[in-house]
Write a structure and sequence with these properties.
The chain has 14 helices and 24 strands. The protein is of the alpha/beta class. The protein folds into two domains: 234 residues, UDP-n-acetylglucosamine1-carboxyvinyl-transferase, Chain (Alpha-beta prism), CATH 3.65.10.10; 215 residues, Enolpyruvate transferase domain (UDP-n-acetylglucosamine1-carboxyvinyl-transferase, Chain), CATH 3.65.10. It starts with a strand and ends with a helix.
Length: 458
């Protein structure tokens, strides 16, 4: 266990911030490369604990995956199985990765193999019924070892997977991906419908590997995605992973809150299904510009330029924005704490079943730092301090949630008094090197009780 303290800084953040590869795309790049025919080179893969769990699980199911250091960075090589996976000999330990658990459940269900999914205490409490229900319709069988937790979960894949039409009760890219991955092995049309468009990396990745994906708008509201199986995936040879907008959110908000900031973040994904936070911040008055817009690995990207300026304004954030920024609400709440006026974030029920109960963790953390925050049913209301500075000084229990940890380290940088988080080691789940990179551009984050090294202090 490693604690961390974020000390207030007087100057803004400057320089070029190297945002790591996108976590969602990294998971999918490994999975689709493992299912395809041929060899795939993956550039820019996020080497976080979550993604490495996916790589280890795919190796256990027969894929050849290795990393190679080159002059321009590390390259991951995946030799595809052509969909011919094998049942692993031991349970697949997925750590804290919900994406790994739900997407691989779809792979196992369709591939007709048998496997047991396991994870840490946090992952074992997260809901798996949302994928078990549709995958059961496709012919897979499931057994839980403990009725009080979701994992461990035994999966017996379907010998002849069936195409299904599934109306998802929640707009979830993980549910959609699990259903489509199982549908690759089924004969006929697999259709998934959702009330709002969730992140579409799976559809983009399917097309990169030669699959035909049909997207349509449902009369009366909602969206449908359809594939017709069985599908033979063929490696495109090379995949490039763009920088993660969810990871970029932390230095972006920190730069907005600290006077004198002028920060550049290169190659950040601007996929409309992921860019909700940047749009909301702009509505609050943030100075964020998108430069050198282009395509990378089938995804739109841009260089972000963030400058601090006038104080942010509190606004209403409607529920319709949730799918495009589900992971960014903790750091948005931090931005709202420093804004003028009230910010109401609506429809946040999904935050209750993330790595922690994020809705409660956000409210508790803000209150510990002197900010009024209320939970009203599934809404979060933050009363911004405006011209009154945020006190800080809180001792934050993160629940081993990486996004709670990083969000309150950002708050500490702009508050009057240092903010302490209990589990900085959780950050490696999605953002290895976070502390060093934040310090290099002007923050003062210190692990445990040690003084920062000269190289970390920037």
């Amino acid at each position: 266990m490693t604690a961390a303290v974020s000390h207030p800084v007087r100057n803004g953040l400057t320089g070029d911030f190297a945002v790591p590869g996108d976590k969602s795309v990294s998971h999918r790049a490994l999975i689709f490369a493992a299912l395809a025919e041929g060899d795939t080179e993956i550039h820019g893969l996020l080497e976080s604990e979550d993604v490495l769990c996916t790589a280890a699980a795919l190796r256990a199911m027969g894929a050849e995956i290795r990393a190679e250091d080159k002059e321009d960075g590390r390259v991951w090589h995946v030799t595809g199985t052509g969909g011919q996976l094998v049942s692993p000999e031991a349970p697949l330990d997925l750590g804290n990765s919900g994406t790994s658990a739900r997407l691989l459940a779809g792979v196992i269900a369709g591939a007709g193999i048998t496997a047991c999914l396991a994870g840490d205490a946090s992952l074992s409490k997260r809901p798996m019924d949302r994928v078990v229900q549709p995958l059961s319709k496709a012919g897979a069988k499931f057994r839980q070892e403990n009725a009080e937790s979701s994992l461990p979960l035994w999966i017996e894949g379907a010998e002849k997977p069936q195409p299904i039409i599934y109306d998802s009760p929640v707009a979830s890219a993980q549910v959609k991906s699990a259903v489509l991955l199982a549908g690759l092995f089924a004969e006929g049309q697999t259709r998934l419908r959702e009330s709002a468009t969730s992140r579409d990396h799976t559809e983009r990745m399917l097309e990169a590997f030669g699959a035909s994906v049909t997207r349509s708008i449902i009369l009366g509201g909602g969206h449908e995605v359809m594939i017709e199986g069985p599908v033979k995936l063929v490696s495109p040879g090379r995949l490039d992973v763009p920088a993660d907008p969810s990871s970029a959110a932390f230095p972006v908000v920190a730069a907005l809150l600290l006077r004198g900031s002028n920060l550049k973040l290169s190659g950040v994904m601007t996929n409309p299904t992921r860019a909700g936070l940047f749009k909301v911040l702009q509505k609050m008055g943030a100075d964020i510009s998108f430069e050198n817009e282009r395509m990378l690995g089938g995804e739109p990207v841009a260089d972000l330029r963030v400058r601090s300026g006038k104080r942010l304004k509190g606004i209403g954030v409607p529920e319709i924005t949730v799918p495009s920024m589900i992971d960014e609400y903790p750091v948005l709440a931090v931005a709202a704490a420093f804004a003028e006026g009230r910010t109401r974030m609506e429809g946040l029920a999904e935050l209750r079943v993330k790595e922690s109960n994020r809705l409660e963790k956000i409210a508790e953390g803000l209150k510990a730092c002197g900010v009024q925050a209320m939970i009203e049913e599934d809404d979060l209301v933050v009363l911004g301090r405006g011209d009154l500075s945020v006190g800080g000084g809180g001792q934050i229990e993160t629940g081993f949630d990486h996004r709670i940890a990083m969000s309150f380290l950002v708050l500490g940088a702009a508050a009057r008094a240092p903010v302490t988080i209990d589990r900085a080691d959780a950050i490696a789940t999605s953002f290895p090197g976070f502390v060093e990179k934040m310090n290099a551009c002007g923050c003062d984050l210190r692990l445990s009780d040690t003084e920062p090294r000269a190289s970390e202090a920037g």
